[in-house]
Amino acid sequence: MSEARAPLRVGIAGIAGRLGRIAADAVRETDALELVGGVVSERTALDEAAYVRSLDDLLARGSIDVLLDVATQPGSERWTREAVSHGIPVVSGSSGWNEATLDEIGGIAAEKRVPALFVPNFAIGAVVMMRVAAEIARTFPHAEIVEMHHDTKRDAPSGTAKVTAKRMEAAGAAPVVIHSVRLPGLVAHQEVIFGSRGEVLTVRHDSLSRESFADGIVAALRGVRRLPPGLHVGLELVL
Predict the structure, then answer these.
(1) Domain 8-118+212-238 falls in which CATH fold?
(2) pTM summary value
(3) Choice among 112, 142, 150, 153 that is catalytic
(4) CA distance 121 to 124
(5) 153 in catalytic set
(6) What is the pLDDT of residue 188?
(7) What does the DSSP assignment read for 159-213?
C-alpha cells in the first residue's frame, strides 16, 4: 500500500479579508491542504494566531508549498514578488495589477524556476463564461461588457472583464468596450452582450456569494505546482 502524500502547506496573503477568510476555511476543509498561516497589513490587528505581518514571519513557522495572494494593493504585489523571489509558487486572485508588473513577476518566476498563476476569477462558472464569450466572438464580433461589483471594489474595470475582452479580441472581436458598475448589494457579476443584425445574444455569470470562489481556490492551490515556471493566467489551466 502506498503512503499517503503529505498535505500541501499553504500561506495566505490577505487572510483577514472577506475572500481571505473564505479561502482559509476552504483550505482547512481540504485534506490535501494545510494552512500554515497568513500575512496581513499593518492596518489589521493581530488578533488571530494565524496572522503575521510579513512573509519572513510566515516562513519562520516552517516551509510553504504555495502562497495564495488575495490581498489588496500594494500588499498583493509586495508579497507575491517576495514569494516568487523565495522560490515559492504563487496563486494570485488580487485585483489592480498592471501588465508591466505582471511581466516583472513573470520574469522573476521564470528566473527562480517556479510557477505563478494569476486568476482573474475563482468562480468556475466565470471561467466557462469567458471561454464561451471568446468562442462566440468568432461569429459575433461586436460586443460590449457590463461588469458589476460591490461598492468596496477599488479597481475598475475588473480583472475578469479585462481578460474576457482580451480573449474576445484575440478571437476576432472588434475592440470591446467595458462598463463598470459599483453598488452595495452586488458581489461579482458580468454580462457580455453581442449584437448583430436583428438579434442580441447575452452571456451572463453571477457570483451570488463569495463562497462561489472556494472550489476554484482549492483547484488552483492543488494544481499550480504542475505548471511550467513563469507566469500563467486563468483558472482553466488547472481545472
Answers:
(1) Rossmann fold (3.40.50)
(2) 0.88
(3) 153
(4) 8
(5) yes
(6) 95
(7) HHHHHHHHHHHHTTPPPPEEEEEE-TT--EEEEEEEEETTEEEEEEEEE-SGGGG
Question: Among candidates 230, 239, 238, which has minimal Cα distance to 102?
Answer: 230
Cα separations in angstroms, 208 against 68, 134, 152, 215, 219: 22, 23, 16, 15, 20
Domain with CATH 3.30.360.10 in the chain: 124-208
Element holding 35 (H helix, E strand): strand 33-39
Q: Express each pLDDT in 13-52 by its tens digit.
A: 999 998 999 999 999 999 999 999 999 987 777 777 789 9
Q: 180-205 pLDDT, tens per residue?
A: 999 999 999 999 999 999 999 999 99
Q: In CATH, what class is 124-208?
A: alpha beta
Catalytic residue among 149, 162, 189, 205: 149
Where in the chain do CATH 3.40.50.720 domains reside?
A: 8-118+212-238
